[in-house]
Q: What sequence folds into this?
């Protein structure tokens, strides 16, 4: 081995020298080709593409996106709230602030537990007011005159009242009023000098009122009746009645006759002096039709003035009661008392249980009341504006919402109306004090939030607000001014939506889900508003929503087209202008599939159809106008010039093709089964000529790129992978991909021309691939991978080898282009037009297959060259394997061989593509198969154990190359003829002689059965004739009886066209029946259908050996020469009655056996047996065959 070391060193040095020369050449070529500084910054692939001015990429690279609106209102946030320096605006701002503080200071009703300072602090933060101004405005709010508190009562109904009349019913009516608080009552009583007690004791306990019949004394507030009645003739009361009226503004309801479940639905309002102490009280009485009633007396209560009027009122009330004593029927039906401080700020509606006035009263049932508090302001300089409370509520909602959004830091569109507890409390109090109903509050919310559209308020949130407003609205619920305010709001929202619809193609980015959702919600909210009865009331006599949308879409398409024309105007090159126009329209059409589902969800409008029809009409009018232009370089002249075959007008040609691609893309957006105006234009011939011209130029450009890519070839490293590649394969694959991508976009109007160009395209692509492969392999040979390779190869050369075959494999993969060529579709169009069978498709597919085969062969040849350098080493390992001691395990004997194979595979498995790695395995298998076969051929007739060892070794190697499914698949092994032949040969050689003989006869029996099946199925004729026999086995005498009846259609073997047939009968295999004689029938002369009718007996045991059968050989007798073989047939003993389950003994069964001739499929068995010279049984079998055949 020592003398070989200098040679290896010299080889490595030579290879390294060639690499240095190649690097110098590369540097020089790169310096010459790219002398400009900016080009030096480009990588290799970009330099190749830039070499021809991006000839291919200019058609496929996406055009710059149209700049969309930078303002996405859905992402706006509020950083700071401020007002301008306008004094009037500042004054309005401060007035609103005072209103908020005034609302807090004068809270009414039972509300949240938030303290007043906390609410004031929230208002200060929401309005962003400093402490000084806050204190000043707070003092101003406190100085304002407090509001007048009002108690609102809605008397709805009662149920289960007690019956007072003899008819089993009552005629109920109610009396209600406000009972003053204890402090004020005591003060009044003290001043009057009376000693009457408070209605409620110090613990607040109340006593039910007495009947008007009762003469019992009671103090002023002892009961509701006592609050305004005194004992008749009382002087004390006469002294005090001018100073205070015990119960203010007592009111009565209407009478509901003959019912125990009255329904009133009446409303009352009372002025409250002190919410914290005053109480609401209500009595229910039974009305008496016959006498002057309490109800009649109460009707004049509000007109009482002074002592005289009040005394008359007491008298009327007293006389209204029925005449009688204490035993008389009481007209009292029950009463209800409630402290006003317990009334929730939101009001309450409930069933109240009626209470007794005394233990003797009979009371039952409940009354349903709705109570709520409100205020009426009488502040200084209060303007007489009915909408003041509404406007203030709107401004407060808006101010609080802006504050909440600012504090959250989230975009405005995220706001869903959720306000903090202080804001909710303040707005609730303001609604109460302003007596704003739920409808008014919903209206205020809509007016407040709809005015925030421009800063990005969510339309989904607006939809919920509007839905609430519409659901609460009923006719006549709003006054004229309020309806006018809503009308202005609806009109403003209508105008905003129309404006948004007009500019949606420019302002709405379909790539942003949030903007699409916002547009969809806007349309949904707009539809809800337009189709609501409230909108119809405010803005009557409007056209339908779908009609307006349709009109807006048409108008917006027209305005968009005018905008496109204005920005694309180019007086010097009408072709470029046309391209820009169509390309911009395509961008708008590309958005149609995003907008169309939105419009279909909320309208019955086909957005895509309306938009495309308008664009089609406008574009057709524009093109007609340009084509009829009389300018020097008009559109028609330029297009005709560009499509001419002669002349150097590449730039104009490219522009024409861009127009073609843009027009083709525009056609893709049309809907099927529709007629369009652009269909009438005839540009096909101009574009076809331009495409033909471009194909010629593209071929030259492509080959130029391949040449440059090979010159600038450099190693590239794919991230997270050790697979070797060079930059040139990227360029070549990119060229092929670009070529096909451009071809897919081209639409050749002439079908015949397109078929020709398709064939021309495929030829060009294949030539490019083949040219590149030749260049790559030539460069690899230059680098040292050539001639007879030595066993040792430097790792650098291995890497170059891997890169080369990987590059070729990548290019081969890029040639899978059948789908991109749409051959089936083109073939159908071609044959439909020409009415003849097309051959070009077959030629195209053949060209691709031929190119693929060529590339595979080049890869396999290169890999085979790498693998064959180890033939000598592998042959030595196979020899040592074959002659290793039998005591040595097969795996141990194989280890040197597998180590060599594994070392070779390990050197390349990380740097090769998987397909190429498997090819290396294939190459090793293809080397080992002849070596194993040679070992068998050189050592014939040895003991079966020798071949069994080789068989096991090859099985181990098969698993080695299979590699658990990562290498050569087992199915692939079965497709390798040499592998199948080797396995078969080893399997035969390792079998014993008797097993080979048995298998030989089994194969012949199987061939006979197949021939019989073919004759039965009329697949083929009986070629050699039929032998008719009968047979059975007598188990008692252990005798096989065979009756040879005759034969039919025996082949003629004599010159006279006949034969002299006879039959030889023997039991086979002879090794299993060595003592059984060979029998013959008589000779039937000159016959092709002989009748023998002879019986033969064979004494054999009932146990049938493996493969046991009767062998019939039909021979032609010849006096002068040896007998001729006419055919043979086999009868399986298992089919003979008497053996096993074949049938009952002593029963002859006829068998019609098809005569056959032995085929070459058994030649391998015969050869193996013939090679066993020392095996007597094998040689006897061979002699038997030679005699028979």
A:
């Amino acid at each position: 081995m020592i003398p070989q070391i200098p040679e290896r060193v010299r080889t490595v040095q030579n290879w390294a020298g060639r690499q240095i020369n190649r690097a110098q050449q590369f540097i020089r070529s790169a310096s010459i080709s790219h002398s400009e500084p900016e080009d030096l910054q480009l990588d290799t692939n970009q330099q190749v593409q830039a070499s021809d001015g991006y000839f291919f990429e200019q058609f496929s690279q996406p055009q710059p996106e149209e700049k969309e609106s930078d303002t996405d209102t859905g992402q706006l946030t509020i950083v700071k709230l401020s007002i301008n320096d306008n004094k009037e605006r500042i004054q309005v701002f401060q007035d609103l602030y005072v209103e908020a503080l005034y609302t807090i200071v004068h809270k009414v009703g039972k509300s949240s537990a938030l303290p007043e300072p906390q609410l004031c602090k929230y208002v200060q933060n929401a309005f962003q007011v400093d402490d000084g101004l806050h204190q000043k405005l707070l003092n101003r709010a406190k100085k304002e005159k407090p509001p007048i508190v009002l108690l609102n009562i809605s008397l709805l109904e009662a149920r289960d009242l007690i019956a007072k009349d003899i008819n089993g019913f009552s005629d109920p009516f109610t009396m209600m009023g406000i009972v003053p608080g204890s402090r004020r009552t005591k003060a009044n009583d003290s001043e009057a000098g009376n000693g009457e007690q408070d209605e409620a004791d110090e613990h607040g306990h109340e006593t039910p009122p007495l009947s008007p019949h009762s003469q019992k004394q009671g103090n002023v507030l002892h009961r509701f009746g006592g609050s305004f009645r005194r004992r008749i003739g009382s002087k004390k009361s006469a002294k005090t009645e001018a100073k205070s009226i015990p119960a203010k503004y007592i009111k009565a309801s209407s009478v509901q006759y003959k019912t125990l479940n009255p329904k009133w639905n009446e409303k009352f309002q009372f002025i409250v002096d002190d919410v914290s102490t005053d109480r609401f009280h209500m009595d229910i009485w039974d009305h008496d039709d016959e006498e002057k009633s309490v109800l009649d007396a109460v009707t004049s209560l509000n007109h009482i003035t002074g002592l005289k009027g009040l005394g008359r009122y007491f008298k009327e009330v007293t006389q209204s009661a029925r005449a009688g004593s204490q035993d008389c029927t009481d007209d009292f039906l029950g009463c209800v008392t409630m402290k006003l401080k317990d009334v929730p700020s939101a009001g309450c509606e409930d069933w109240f249980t009626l209470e007794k006035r005394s233990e003797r009263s009979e009371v039952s049932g409940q009354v349903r009341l709705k109570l709520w508090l409100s205020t009426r302001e009488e502040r200084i300089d209060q303007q007489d504006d009915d909408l003041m409370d509404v406007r203030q509520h709107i401004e407060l909602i808006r101010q609080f919402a802006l504050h909440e959004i600012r504090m959250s830091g989230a975009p405005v569109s995220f706001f869903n109306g959720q306000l903090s507890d202080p804001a909710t409390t303040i707005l609730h109090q303001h609604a109460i004090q302003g007596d704003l109903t739920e409808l008014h509050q919903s209206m205020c919310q809509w007016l407040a939030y709809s005015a925030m559209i421009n800063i990005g308020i969510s339309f989904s949130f607006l939809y919920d607000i509007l839905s609430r407003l519409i659901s609460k609205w009923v006719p006549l619920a709003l006054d004229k001014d309020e309806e006018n305010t809503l009308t202005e709001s609806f009109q403003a929202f209508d105008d905003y939506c129309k404006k948004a619809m007009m500019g949606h193609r420019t302002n709405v980015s379909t790539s942003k889900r949030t903007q699409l959702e916002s547009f969809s919600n806007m349309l949904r909210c707009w539809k809800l508003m337009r189709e609501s009865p409230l909108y119809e009331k405010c803005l009557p006599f409007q056209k339908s929503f779908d009609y307006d949308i349709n009109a807006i879409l048409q108008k917006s398409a027209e305005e968009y087209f005018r905008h496109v024309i204005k920005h694309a105007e180019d007086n010097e090159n009408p072709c470029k202008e046309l391209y820009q126009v169509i390309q911009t329209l395509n961008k708008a059409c590309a958005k149609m599939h995003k907008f169309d589902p939105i419009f279909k969800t909320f309208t019955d409008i086909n957005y895509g159809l309306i938009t495309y029809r308008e664009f089609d009409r406008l574009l057709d009018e524009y093109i007609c106008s340009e084509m009829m232009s009389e300018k020097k370089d008009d559109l028609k002249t330029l297009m005709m010039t560009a499509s001419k075959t002669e002349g150097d007008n590449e730039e104009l040609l490219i522009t024409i093709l861009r127009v073609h691609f843009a027009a083709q893309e525009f056609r893709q957006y049309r809907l099927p089964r529709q007629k369009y105006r652009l269909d009438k234009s005839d540009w096909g011939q101009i574009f076809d000529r331009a495409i033909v011209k471009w194909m010629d130029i593209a071929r030259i450009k492509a080959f130029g790129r391949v040449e440059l890519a090979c010159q600038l070839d450099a190693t590239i490293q794919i991230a997270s992978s050790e697979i070797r590649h060079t930059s040139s394969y990227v360029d070549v694959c990119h060229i092929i991909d670009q070529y096909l991508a451009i071809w897919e976009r081209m639409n050749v109007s002439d079908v015949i021309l397109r078929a020709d160009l398709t064939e021309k395209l495929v030829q060009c692509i294949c030539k490019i691939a083949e040219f590149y492969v030749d260049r790559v392999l030539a460069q690899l040979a230059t680098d040292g991978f050539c001639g007879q390779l030595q066993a040792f190869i430097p790792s650098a050369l291995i890497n170059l080898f891997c890169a080369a075959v990987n590059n070729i494999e990548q290019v081969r993969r890029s040639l899978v282009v059948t789908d991109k060529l749409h051959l089936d579709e083109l073939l159908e169009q071609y044959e439909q037009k020409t009415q003849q069978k097309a051959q070009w498709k077959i030629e195209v597919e053949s060209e691709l297959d031929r190119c693929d085969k060529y590339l595979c062969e080049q890869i396999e040849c290169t890999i085979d060259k790498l693998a064959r350098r180890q033939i000598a080493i592998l042959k030595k390992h196979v020899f040592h394997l074959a002659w290793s001691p039998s005591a040595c395990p097969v795996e141990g004997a194989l280890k040197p061989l597998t180590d060599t194979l594994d070392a070779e595979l390990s050197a390349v498995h990380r740097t090769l593509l998987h397909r190429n790695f498997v090819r290396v395995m294939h190459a090793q298998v293809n080397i080992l198969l002849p070596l194993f076969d040679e070992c068998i051929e050189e050592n014939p007739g040895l003991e079966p154990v020798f071949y069994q060892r080789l068989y096991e070794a090859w099985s181990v190697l098969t698993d080695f190359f299979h590699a658990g499914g990562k290498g050569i698949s087992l199915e692939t092994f079965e497709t390798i003829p040499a592998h199948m032949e080797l396995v078969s040969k080893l399997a035969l050689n390792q079998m014993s002689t008797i097993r080979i003989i048995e298998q030989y006869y089994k194969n012949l029996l199987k061939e006979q059965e197949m021939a019989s099946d073919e004759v039965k199925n009329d697949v083929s004729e009986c070629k050699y004739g039929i032998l008719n026999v009968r047979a059975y086995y007598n188990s008692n005498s252990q005798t096989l009886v065979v009756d040879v009846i005759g034969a039919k259609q025996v082949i003629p073997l004599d010159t006279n066209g006949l034969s002299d047939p006879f039959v030889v009968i023997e039991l086979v295999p002879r090794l299993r029946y060595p003592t059984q004689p060979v029998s013959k029938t008589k000779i039937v002369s000159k016959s092709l259908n002989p009748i023998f009718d002879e019986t033969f007996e064979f004494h054999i045991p009932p146990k049938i050996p493996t493969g046991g059968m009767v062998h019939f050989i039909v021979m032609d007798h010849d006096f002068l020469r040896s007998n001729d073989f006419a055919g043979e047939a086999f009868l399986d003993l298992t089919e003979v009655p008497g053996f096993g389950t074949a049938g009952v003994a002593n029963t002859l069964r006829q068998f019609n056996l098809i005569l056959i001739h032995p085929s070459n499929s058994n030649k391998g068995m015969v050869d193996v047996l013939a090679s066993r010279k020392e095996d007597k049984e094998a040689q006897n079998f061979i002699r038997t065959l030679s005699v028979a055949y």
User: Anything to note?
Assistant: The chain has 42 helices and 18 strands. Residues 1-13, 23-42, 185-247, 302-330 have pLDDT under 50 and may be disordered. The CA atoms of residues 647 and 1139 lie 95 Å apart. The longest strand covers residues 148-159.
